[in-house]
Amino acid sequence: MLRVVKVENGTVQGLPAADPRITSFKGIPFAAPPVGDNRWRAPQPAENWEGVRQAFQFAPVPMQVRQEIDENNIYTREWTVEPDIAMDEDCLYLNVWTPAKNVDEKLPVFVWYFGGGLQVGHTAEMEFDGERIARRGIVVVTIAYRLNAFGFLCHPEITAEAPEAPANFGHLDQQFATRWVKRNIAAFGGDPDNLTIGGQSAGGGSVMNQLASPQNEGLFQRAIVQSGVFTKLYPGNGAPKFLREFGEAEADGIRFFEALGVSSLAEARKLDAAYVRDKYLESGRFWGTVVDGKFNVGDAFEAFLRNERLPVPVLFGHTSSEFFSVPEAGTAAEFKKMAAELFGDDAETFLALCGANAGSLDEALKRASASGIEYAIRIAGQANADTGANLPLYYYNFDADIPGWDNPGTFHSVDLWFFFETLAKCWRPFVGKHYDLARQMCDYWANFIRGGDPNGRDSTGADLPRWEVYTPEAPYGMRFADQAGFARERPDEIMAFLVQQYFKKNPLHSYSKG
């Protein structure tokens, strides 16, 4: 087994995982600490070290709000088990799980970006244990990146100092770590030319941004976007706003420096990190990706629709009960007015599909309720064909029965336990059918990471249910329920109508590249 590995900055020693055939390396620095003069600066190369560095435990998590264990909050109840976990601005470290016995195995590689709204999250979350995926012959890497004010502040002084990298430091950390993996993963038995990036929620949104960045040509060969692509369905209830224009972001930075009580970048870099974090939290800001014209040249979803993205296979999906949008209407008349404004001559078709003319308003609103993520994915699937890209695109809907006293449904992020196959770490009373589903999902993910096609054999040796490529002619997704996945799940009538209307308003030529 590869227990000691030489990387570009020195030698690291790992530990046997729970399965001793897997070696885990935790807390490997991939960049210099982003502190002092490196605060609000693109990641810089890590320094070399002497001797053997013990990579036995996770590094401190990035600066963020300190999570409290709260039984009334489903997310802290699910994930927060160490409220006093070590936290530090010096956070640019990654972790590797490898099944390789020697350095020349050229195993496929999976690089994971955690979620958390670009505000919170870390690689030490127990659901992100890479061991089970690694058991399928994959080298798994989870990477940390700067969040909130540390990862996404802009300011005119920063722009003047580094016009080539004036913003998006959190995304640049992801990119820098992925490049580190490409340079060093062969030492862990991985293939640098067979690399998949993946993420969920804001991590999935980060994958979208990496897909669309003009700086990433040739960096990876596949992408997995879980619950990470959104677009507005109805007026008044759009997707979370993570994207900011550059001028707006710089103006935010000027105001933030005033709130910090500093008048220069040099002064701001000397402030205590906890003070900066707390002032950001007090401000109520929610900073995310910035259109800086360098790493990010515009909305990543729009770029995907125009086929202005890396030409790689993509696996998209979501859970069955997250991010649903409902038309804002208090009366039947308002509902019909909204339909007329949105759909014009096709409004009557929409109203008929919703049963608005015959049933109650509540029933019509319920029928019109739809997933903004499913909507975005199906639009992307149509554009993938209409632009002539025709790259492999796979779609799933996670619809398992989730046990627990809280009766949570398939809430946002619950699928993380399944495709990482880490159910045994969760407090929920999962039973055999859940473990069977998790095994199959992990097999699908490993197959996709291995060669861009999720199909193949289960760990039991049986053929997995067939997962078809998504096309406009066959707009099928894989539904993951309590037993084996069920292929060929079509959009319902209202979703099909909404997607059709999207392209009626945004004709093909709007998304044709060039």
Highest-level CATH class: Alpha Beta
Strand order of the largest sheet: 3-4-6-8-7-9-10-13-16-17-18
**Straight-line distance between termini:** 50 Å
Q: What is the CATH homology-level superfamily?
A: Alpha/Beta hydrolase fold, catalytic domain
Integer tally of domains = 1
* CA-based shape: globular
Rg is 23 Å
What integer is the average pLDDT?
93
CATH-derived architecture: 3-Layer(aba) Sandwich
- The computed structural class is alpha/beta
Uncertain segments: none
The largest β sheet comes out as: 11 strands, mixed
The helix count comes to 18
How much strand content do the residues show? Answer: 15-25%
Range of helix content:
25-40%
What CATH calls the topology is Rossmann fold
How many strand units? 18
Outline:
Helix content is 33%, strand content 16%. It is an alpha/beta fold and 514 residues long. It has a single domain, classed as Rossmann fold, CATH 3.40.50.1820.
What order do the helices and strands come in, and which of them pair?
Layout: E1 4-7, E2 10-13, E3 15-16, E4 23-29, E5 52-54, H1 74-79, E6 93-98, E7 107-113, H2 131-134, E8 139-143, H3 148-152, H4 156-161, H5 169-184, E9 190-200, H6 202-212, E10 222-226, E11 244-245, H7 246-260, H8 265-270, H9 273-283, E12 290-291, H10 300-305, E13 314-319, E14 324-325, H11 332-343, H12 347-354, H13 361-368, E15 370-371, H14 372-386, E16 393-398, H15 416-419, H16 432-451, E17 477-480, E18 486-489, H17 493-505, H18 508-511
Helix pairs in contact: 11-12, 14-17
